[in-house]
Design brief:
The complex is a heterodimer. Chain A is an alpha/beta fold. Chain A is 39% helix and 17% strand. Chain A is built from 13 helices and 17 strands. The mean pLDDT of chain A is 95. In chain B, 41% of the residues lie in helices and 16% in strands. The radius of gyration of chain B is 14 Å and the shape is globular. The relative contact order of chain B is 0.21. Classes of the chains: A alpha/beta, B alpha+beta. Chains A and B meet through helix 11 of A and helix 1 of B.
Chain lengths: 410, 144
């Protein structure tokens, strides 16, 4: 098929790993960006350069290297602030992962605002990282968890969600973009929270590099995402929180860097954002995330989104034509993610078969076991796209799927 | 077709994956254990009857999983039925070495053995857990 008229960002060359041959001869087709994105040269080179030429601890010394490191770390915070359109750098907390961000909010929000019997609303499509931190509150403190149902389309059932609120509902935590269905959260869910004056946390792991994020427009109270899914390094995550809430909640971990003044009798705590950043932070990784944001900005997030939408739609239509493929989540719009099964073939088999064809896809429960149970499947295969993918790759993938079906039905 | 795939999915594996033998629950049984692969959600329940001579009189499993995990469990039950427990433990060790690509010499398994069909799993390190899930359940049941 001729794809010459379609938008091609032509950025494959920016990602050195994409020239790797799988099993020494197959071109790599990387369809697992939702698990982790590949890294552009600029991120790899700049993190190397940090270690080679500028590295020291941050915010602690007064010597040259300390200044250079601190500058890079804080510059990354500014870039993240702009990326999310947060009001202030004080609202940007660096964590080691999005998971840590959710744990931080669950624990410290409970400490300040909740007690036994209070309620948290989640949904059936949440990733384990947006379930287990809240399970901890249920197990330790007797917090009550409620789960919004989903519709066959893969979206949260808004009426059911709305019906879960009581005067004990203290916080809501939902995925902004489902890592299984690729469906975006219905904005009504957020406006319902606003109407009821209940804070909402959005898990933005899958949305941060694939939708334009504006935390003020979204009017969420917390937003988390991870560096490694946004073309940056692993080991760095971001928690956005409104200054009001972050100021009122207590620190999460204690240690160096988060203190105001310490005596043996007690301590006062640092101002935001340092209050939540105990210990030496992942400073090089934070810098790498800043460079990844620069990279996305250079291509243009609008272009990236248009490109990914085109591939996702194309792949969806191709898969939808194949009678032995079952796509999960109805016909609604998807953003960069499609989950499917080949009838009667376990997703492991599909993934291993495609692997030797050079195609990397995810197989398994995607850290969403409650959702898998709801779908009545043990696992699914998942395609997910990034800035470097192309329609030609989808064509090759579809051919490989037919070969796979033939192989296992022989 | 690629050799790695053909080695992984030999006919006997596909056959046992589609139609697992000894599928069900052993009644009566005096040993049981659950196998679970938390990374992918595959699971099985293994039950067997150990008689007073320490011989596995009957052994069955139920569960859901990929072709490799189902075939491995199926072949395991075929292999272990009627074996003395000491022998079964030797087979367990050999099998673990076989699929993990270990250089250690096999003591009781050889190329004629149906279990040898799972050697191809060694070419897919992430699938080793699929092949060993049933065996670890067996080992667990012996300890309990």
């Amino acid at each position: 098929m001729d794809h010459s008229k379609t938008l091609n960002l032509n950025v494959r060359k920016d990602f050195p790993i994409l020239s790797k041959k799988i099993l020494e001869k197959k071109d790599l087709i990387y369809f697992d960006t939702a698990a982790s994105a590949q890294k552009p040269n600029t991120v790899i080179d700049e993190t190397n350069d940090f270690y080679k030429n500028h590295y020291s601890n941050v915010s602690r010394g007064v010597h040259t290297l300390s200044v250079e490191s601190t500058f890079r770390y804080e510059d990354a915070r500014k870039k993240v602030q702009k990326f999310l359109n947060a009001r202030s750098e004080n609202e940007i907390i660096f964590t080691k992962s999005a998971t840590e961000g959710i744990n931080l909010v669950a624990q410290t929000f409970y400490d300040k605002f909740m007690q036994k019997g209070d309620e948290v609303i989640l949904s059936l499509i949440e990733h384990h990282s947006n379930l287990i931190p809240w399970f901890f509150l249920r197990d330790k403190y007797g917090v009550v968890l409620k789960f919004a149902n989903i519709q066959p389309s893969g979206e949260i059932d808004i009426d059911h969600f709305n019906s879960l609120f009581t005067n004990k509902t203290k916080i809501v935590s939902l995925t902004h973009l489902s890592n299984v269905f690729g469906t975006e959260l219905n904005e009504k869910a957020i406006s319902i929270c606003k109407d009821k004056n209940v804070p909402i946390l959005l898990d933005g792991c899958q949305s941060a590099a694939h939708l334009k994020i504006d935390v003020q427009k979204l009017s969420c109270d917390f937003f988390v995402f991870s560096g490694h899914k946004t073309y940056g390094p692993a080991g760095i995550g971001v928690l956005y929180g409104t200054e009001n809430l972050l100021s009122e909640m207590p620190p999460y971990q204690g240690g160096g860097g988060m203190i105001g003044d310490v005596s043996l009798e007690g301590a006062s705590y640092a101002e935001l954002p340092a209050k939540y950043e105990a210990g030496t932070p992942p400073l090089v990784e934070a810098h790498g995330l800043g460079i990844a944001i620069d990279y996305m900005n250079k291509i243009g997030l609008d272009n990236i989104i248009e490109h990914e939408n085109e591939i996702t739609k194309y792949a969806f239509n191709k898969l939808n034509e194949i009678d032995f493929i079952e796509i999960h989540g109805g016909d609604n719009k998807r953003n960069s993610i499609i989950s499917f099964n080949i009838k009667n073939i376990h997703s492991h088999e599909v993934s291993s078969f495609l692997d030797v064809e050079g195609i990397a896809i995810r197989a398994g429960h995607h850290c969403c076991q409650p959702l898998m149970k709801h779908l009545g499947v043990n696992s699914t295969a998942r395609l997910s796209f990034g800035v470097y993918n192309s329609l030609e790759e989808v064509d090759k993938f579809v051919i490989a799927l037919h070969k796979c079906k033939e192989f296992f039905n022989k | 077709m690629n050799d790695l795939i053909n080695d992984l999915y030999q006919e006997i594996i596909l056959d046992h994956g589609r139609e697992p033998r000894n599928f069900g629950e052993c009644e009566p049984h005096n040993k049981s254990a659950d196998g679970h692969n938390p990374l992918c959600g595959d699971n099985l329940k293994l039950t067997f009857l150990l008689n007073d001579q320490n011989i596995i009189e009957d052994i069955k499993f139920t569960g859901e999983g990929c072709a490799i995990s189902l075939a491995s469990a199926s072949l395991m039950t075929e292999k272990l039925k009627g074996k003395k427990i000491e022998v079964a433990e030797e087979i367990f060790k050999d099998f673990t070495n076989l699929v993990s690509g270990s250089d250690e010499d096999l003591k009781v398994l050889n190329e004629e053995d149906s279990l040898y069909a799972l050697k191809g799993v060694g070419g897919f390190p992430m699938r080793v857990k699929c092949a060993t899930m049933a065996w670890h359940a067996f080992n667990q049941a012996l300890k309990d």
